[in-house]
Amino acid sequence: PGHYQLFDHVVEGLLSLGLSPDDIDLVIVTHGHPDHIEGVRRFWGKDTKIAVGEMEMELLRKIAPHYSDALGISDFEPHILLREGSLEVGSLNFEVLHTPGHSPGSICLYLASNRALFTGDVIFNGGIGRTDLPGGDSSALKESIKRLSRLEIEYVLPGHGDIVSGREDVDANFREIESYWFGYI
Question: Considering just the CA atoms, what is the radius of gyration of the chain in Å?
Fold first, then answer.
């Protein structure tokens, strides 16, 4: 859900779709960096469930004594801990994929029925997630990206930037990432 202070942008986006935060039943956090987890506070005390990857939650618990007050998540405990495998959300069946590299417990969500991949900060349109933050691992990120590139994908929906749509553009994006970015990480 982003940074807490910038959450009004999320609200504006929801309103443009005829929704509000009260309409959200589930928030899935792809990884525990501030720009992806601070906004969960806006859902506390509501009926919204919060889901976090189990491995990422282990890391968050370790760093909590040092950063939780700054992030505003001092008493954060998700409703759902996600593991690699199937996740049913209403009538949709997602595949939860453990994709370490940008963070140790990073996850992506693959919706095979729509060939849509929600990538968090693993890959972007023309780029990749940083590995210079605590817990980052460039070798693991490369392996995660290679794994994702083998999926049948029509849409890449990253945590930042533009969506990549169309199989040719998705494949070209993976080729660009591997040929350019792999040399730097």
Answer: 16
